[in-house]
Design goal:
This protein is an alpha+beta fold. The chain has one domain: 2-Layer Sandwich (GMP Synthetase, Chain A, domain 3), CATH 3.30.300.330. It contains three helices and three strands, in the order αβαββα.
Length: 109
């Protein structure tokens, strides 16, 4: 009986991680990572009940197109995703914050 409780408890509190992916030009400066990270971290700090502290990662990675790189944003919810009425609203807000940060950087200049 004790083992069942541990398994249920672990599965109930399992991390719910999201990864957002954006294709950007290869000439995108690395400063975009910092500005995007700062904007998203500010949003996560304002909504600390929604997101796990310290879980944000913003990075570049390669892909099949030699003239593009992938900008990946990953973060973890403070819940397992099933406890919220609409986890889609939270992920949409992260997309919106990412796009807003792009507008204020070299991506749109």
């Amino acid at each position: 009986m004790y083992l069942l409780f541990i398994l249920f408890s672990c599965s109930f509190h399992q991390a719910f991680v999201r990864i957002l992916q954006f294709m950007v030009d290869i000439s995108t400066p690395a400063s975009v990572l910092d500005s995007t990270s700062q904007a998203l971290q500010a949003h996560m700090d304002e909504n600390s009940t929604e997101y796990k502290s310290g879980s944000l990662s913003v990075s570049f990675s390669t892909n099949d197109d030699p003239l593009k790189v992938q900008l990946a944003v990953s973060f973890e919810y403070s819940h397992n995703g099933e406890q919220q009425e609409s986890p889609h609203a939270a992920v949409s807000t992260m997309y919106i914050c990412s796009l807003a940060s792009f507008e204020s950087t070299a991506l749109y200049q």
